[in-house]
Amino acid sequence: MKKILIALGAIIVIALIAAAAMPKTFGYEDSITIEASPSNVWKHAGSLKGMDAWSPWMAKDENIKHTWEGEDGAVGSSNCWDSQVEEVGAGCQKVVEVEENKAFLTELNFTRPNEGLGKGYTYLEEDGEGTKVRWGFESEMPWPFNLMIPMMDMEKQMGEDWSNGLSKLKELSEASSAEEKRIAEEAAAAAEQEAAMEEQSSTEE
Q1: How far apart are CA 141 and CA 194, in angstroms?
Q2: How do residues 19-72 score in pLDDT, each as one tens digit?
Q3: Can you give the pTM of this predicted structure?
Q4: How far apart are CA 190 and CA 171, in angstroms?
Q5: What is the pLDDT of residue 5?
Q6: In this structure, are residues 107 and 119 in contact, taking their beta carbons and an 8 Å threshold?
Q7: Under DSSP, is residue 149 helix (H, G, I), strand (E, B) or coil?
Q8: Per-residue confidence (pLDDT) for residue 131, from 0 to 100
Q9: Is the pLDDT assigned to residue 100 strictly greater than 50?
Q10: Pair 78, 95: CB distance under 8 Å
Q11: Cα torsion at 53, 57, 60, 65 (round to 10°)?
């Protein structure tokens, strides 16, 4: 019995030492290429209310409660949510840095079902005639719990939600881009028609 206890003690000590040497940071990121300009994508990715429209978690609860503060899209603005759906839970997200058409960074404070802090980010960059979007988050797990990080399957836990969210962002962005092009083409056609009519009128005179 004594030998077993000594062995268990040694294993625990080794685990604690290993945890002290391991990183405490973990996160997840996915990306997508959207056939729209960065300015068009920014309409949906550059504010908390814009992000709400393609958030995979907001779609899971029609009765979710929101508390909005500040000028939407500006540094310091925030959104606190409260849902009885366990996957959605409760927490707050605050905008901490904004670079128009390029970067949107936030701080996350989760309160339910688990407490935790994190950093969210969305980066946009031109990719040919479209836009590449990188969406992700980072968080920390304190010692000695960080020993669990290598065992976390982030792709399994987050992959489907991230994919659904980015696909919705792509759908919204490309739809608004198509609408913008349609309006521009109609305006150009109208201007061309007006010019032709003016030319015809001046010729008749």
Answers
A1: 65
A2: 444 455 667 889 999 999 999 999 999 999 999 999 998 888 889 999 999 999
A3: 0.76
A4: 29
A5: 43
A6: yes
A7: helix
A8: 96
A9: yes
A10: yes
A11: -80
Q: Which residue has the higher pLDDT, 122 or 6?
A: 122
pLDDT given for residue 14 in this prediction: 43
Bond into 23 cis (ω within 30)? no
Q: Any idea how long the chain is?
A: 205
Which residues lie below 8 Å from residue 107, measured CB to CB, with a gap of 6+? 93, 94, 96, 117, 118, 119, 120
- Which phi and psi angles does 97 have, rounded to 5°? -155, 135
Tell me the helix, strand and coil percentages in the chain, rounded to 5: 45, 30, 25
For the stretch 4-23, what's the b/e string if a residue is b when 16 or more beta carbons lie within 10 angstroms of its beta carbon?
Answer: eeeeeeeeeeeeeeebeeee
C-alpha torsion angle, residues 27, 32, 38, 41 (rounded to 10): -90
Is the distance from CB of 114 to CB of 52 less than 8 angstroms?
no
Q: 103 with 93: CB under 8 angstroms?
A: no
Separation of alpha carbons 95 and 107, rounded Å = 6
| Separation of alpha carbons 166 and 25, rounded Å | 24
Which tokens go with 33? Answer: 């290429």
